Amino acid sequence: MQSDCSTTRERHAMKKPQDILTAPHEELEAIQLEGVKKTIINCYENVPFYHNLYDEAGFDPYSVKSLADLAKAPFTTKQDLRDNYPFKMFAVPNEDIREIHMSSGTTGIATVGGYTEHDLDIWGDCFARGVWYADGGPTDIMHVCYGYGLFTGGLGAHYGGVKAGCTTIPMSAGNTERQIRVMREMGSTILCCTPSYAMHLADTAIAMGIDPKKDFKLRAGIHGAEAFSDNFRRDLEKKLGYKVLDVYGLTETMGPGVAIECMEQNGLHLAEDHFYAEIIDPKTGEVLPDGEWGELVITTVDREATPVVRYRTRDITRILPGECACGRTHRRIDRLHGRTDDMLIIRGVNVFPSQIEDVMKTFDQVSSWYQIELTRKGHLDVVTLKLEPNPDFDFDEVRAIEQLQHDIQARLKSALSVGIRVRIVEPRSIPRSEGKAVRVIDKRGDDQ
Ligand code: DLL
User: What is the pTM of this model?
Assistant: First the structure.
């Protein structure tokens, strides 16, 4: 019998995990409010960083009565997490921590995420939604080649696969030919890895004489961890004969599964029962209405080990207004253009690498392999897009190369209003990555 004092969250915990995906939005908001209030108080009482932050800002953590009130709380930044490395952001004692993950830290000190048993359980539930969105379950064979280890991709996808009842193959990244053999021999149906690695798998399989559409049984790919354009996605779907769902997440709030696309491919459903999202103007910090592009800010609703309040992700997206045709009620974010840090400012125009990719991929002659190089000539930045042609393009035909470079340059200029030099480079000369692809090489410091 249901007790009167059970919370909204407890009542929901008694339902099938999929039921929450179609719950009326007011119910989700009630869960969020209850969770956000608890998170703020938990942070204030158990994490010295938040205690000081709120006291200094004059923010009363007990004053939140509505989700809109959250806007009064100060932000948390990546720097705050770095300053508290490794364990000072933990809100529970060490004996309750079951697992730790870390961001790659390529741009500085890494940030650490801790997980209690409950946190691992909700992580599995969040990623399992990708499988459910792909109409998948126990009959699926999930091939996970995100890296296992401190990176959240491998284990996050793995927990999701297990939770959804899939036969989960923990391949981890690398050894591409072996991945291809296993995919073929075991009949993997769902592929989980970065989109660039999926492209590398597809190209390598084709080069090995395999026809992925016939020889593989793939029907869905759950790809994320880096931005990829719509045209890149179409190319991937054409080569592998499956449907690509975009998955978003970050170490600081959990890992993959914060938001995942459904088969409509029209925005990523936020896991709103676990995360409360706001979009802010990155310059003023003001909360923006649905539909406007800005920086995604996340508050965890029920994270125990490393809860965050108003974490500035630096990722640029928007909340898509309206309901999704799939019938699920969780609001959607648009596919990401990239992070504020990745944005190139070319002679005053803001451009994301994924927008350049989208234009370049309108040319049939070019492959999906490219790199953007930034150099400096005098006081001016020079942006060069290096890209590889498709294998059937005659690389020795100089006139054709010059013409193609010229045409791509002109289309970039007209689509994005930026002057970018285009250079077609030798096939297979751009490094392949097993994880996140390196799209931008900044050589401006080298020239001085
Ligand atoms: O990349 C978690 C992840 C693993 C997501 C596997 C999806 C799949 P981090 O290494 O902490 O965590 O990097 C997080 O990657 O802030 C975004 O800038 C970027 N990112 C993640 N997913 C997407 C996506 C993982 N679907 C950072 N589209 C985030 C674009 C993404 N960028």
Answer: 0.92
